[in-house]
Amino acid sequence: MADRYKIGVKVLELSATKELPDSTNSIACSEDGKYLSLGHPRGLSVWCVCGLVWAAEWLKDRQEIIAVQMVSMSPEAYLIGTIDYMGVARIFAYYSENIYLLNVINSADDVNRRKVCLTFELSPSGNYAATIIGCNADVWLEVYRLPTEAWTNQLENLSPGATPFRDPEIRNQESGEDEGGQKWSPTSAPTRIKPPKKRSRTRGSTTESSRDVGVVNFLTFCLSVDEDAGAQNLKMDMEPINPACEVTRRGTHHFLLPCGHFPGASKAYAQPECPVAVCLWWTGSRNLLHYYLQKSTKNKPDDEPDILWPNANEILCSTVSRCTRYVVLGLVNSLVCVWDRKTGSPLSVVSMTTVDSPFLRMRFMDYIPQCPAPTDEVHILVLCTSGLMHMVTTGRGAEPSISQAIESPEDAEDFPTLVQPVPFLQSTLLVVQKNGTVLLQDVMKKTTLCYFDPPRPRVIATPWNPVYALNMKEPCLYIRGDQTFRSRVTSEEEVIGHLLVYNFKESELFKPYLITPPNSLPENPFSFATLQEQCNLYLQQRALGVEQRNKDIRQTWEELLRRAAEGAL
Fold it and tell me: What are the boundaries of the region Disordered (predicted)?
């Protein structure tokens, strides 16, 4: 193992360890850093971070939890979102050392029409939940408004004999009561958003006479072109494998916080951590679709976007900044498009001509204090399918800077399976490689800070899909490590999982890097009350980029003149 490490790089010592429930496959840390949620084949457990002691559990046969998320609903109550191995999503509450099952998003009653949750996400404040659902060949997004205030009041007013568990098969679906007699407030009816289909050109100006002169509604045109291109691309991808199979699209969504002008802006800015919209793109699409969570038009279909941002090429991956002002899209042909939600226009479009493989995923670097920059400068990490990683720095009217953050792996076993910015360590990345190596990378200095080497005979579990969590309040890394031994009774190999804890405060190495992430998002200096204010800001920022645009125009004309001269010869 040691021969994988670079000479002279520190190996961080283990701070603590604790045996985990069998086959724990998901870990989440609460926002206040007090609790850990563990998903495993027997259900769900909650541990106190202080001392790593058991606090509560929800156990049920054949309910293996494979994904878990934990957010704060109040100072004493927490929401826990889970998905089990059957694709059933649930919402729990942890309160007063008990776990309560509040809601089951989808049931598995009808096997032929079983809805499978492909992804499930709670918004940071717990006010909304979004899930991508697949059923046979169909796929769609469902968004729920959660009654967090009512749930908090119900938890605080629980009778002493209330049952903390609820079985979805026993629950009275109409009354919302569980077998213990507790009635929880229901979630709102979901907003269902399906992939856009070809639109009939009869809306607005698209009458029979307007078709003759080629006048087409912009939204209809973009969705129609996108559907044509997406269906053709997906068909070409699927036919060589199985011509008879049905094409299924996957969706990627992000919750968006208040920013710019939108319906209910004045009310939303009073709750800066409550999302106001969700943005979404589908596999094979080049359009980024926005849907307001507070609808202003009653007659508009749910799946018709409120805002559409068209892009030059098909979208491969996306990410958003912590404040969600910037949405970054990785496109085909190595294009990176940074959209600014304040102006509703691209902040920058970067062509990464040196990249030799498609984009795989992207991450924002929100904390780079070493690089003083204007407020609209962003730093983006781009990981390619070859394993090569680049840092892209760009801003409005500024020349983009592209540098190599991580070299392309020499061996397939060195491929990075996890690349995660560490929020409490400035300009650092947590990297897990396929061979089980875990390291911390300084992306600005392009050096390896340290390795995380668990004591033998433990090894990092499932390095192709590591089970880990970061604690922002107590700067720690929690990661699952396995120890294999041969049973004396059965002579078969058995695996015991351990929670490995690395505390960054215990090492002098990290003192120059440690930062304290803000408890809340920064106040928004541009809370537009009118569309005119938003337009004024857009024009001001356009003026900042005049010099760069003039330079680009001159270069373009020079290139055209050069090619014209070559053609004349």
Answer: 157-209
Return the closest-CA partner of residue 50 out of 3, 96, 18, 91.
Answer: 18
CA atoms within 13 A on the CB side of 346: 15
Per-residue pLDDT tens digits for 341-364: 988 888 899 999 878 789 999 999
What are the sequence ranges of the domains in the chain?
32-123+147-186
> Pick the residue with more confidence: 553 or 113?
553
SS3 289: strand
Edge-to-edge order in the sheet of strand 26-29 = 26-29, 35-40, 43-48, 53-59
**How far is Cα 193 from Cα 304, in angstroms, rounded to an integer?**
8
Q: Is the dihedral of CA 366, 372, 376, 381 positive or negative?
A: negative
Q: What number is the average pLDDT over the span 301-306?
A: 78
The C-alpha atoms of residue 102 and residue 164 are separated, in whole angstroms, by: 10
Q: How many CB atoms lie within 10 A of CB 561?
A: 10
Structure token pair of residue 187: 């979630």
pLDDT tens-digit series, residues 391-448: 999 987 778 889 888 877 888 888 999 999 998 998 899 999 999 999 999 988 888 9
| Predicted structure pTM score | 0.81
Token pair 């890097």: residue = 513
List the structure tokens of 506.
């215990």
How far is residue 506's CA from residue 15's CA, in Å, rounded to a whole number? 8
Rg (CA), the chain: 26
Identify the pLDDT of residue 445: 86
Ranges assigned E (strand) in 332-436: 335-340, 345-351, 359-364, 378-384, 389-394, 401-406, 416-421, 428-433
Mean pLDDT value of segment 66-85: 94
Residue among 89, 74, 79 at smallest CA distance from 37: 79
**pLDDT at residue number 204:** 44
59, two tokens: 């156990």
Q: How long, in residues, is the chain?
A: 569
DSSP state of 163: -
**Domain 32-123+147-186 -> CATH class:** mainly beta
Between helix 531-544 and helix 546-568 the angle, nearest 10°, is 50
CA–CA dist 25, 566 (Å, integer): 63
- Report the alpha-carbon distance of residue 169 to residue 175 in Å, rounded: 14
DSSP letter (8 states) at residue 557: H
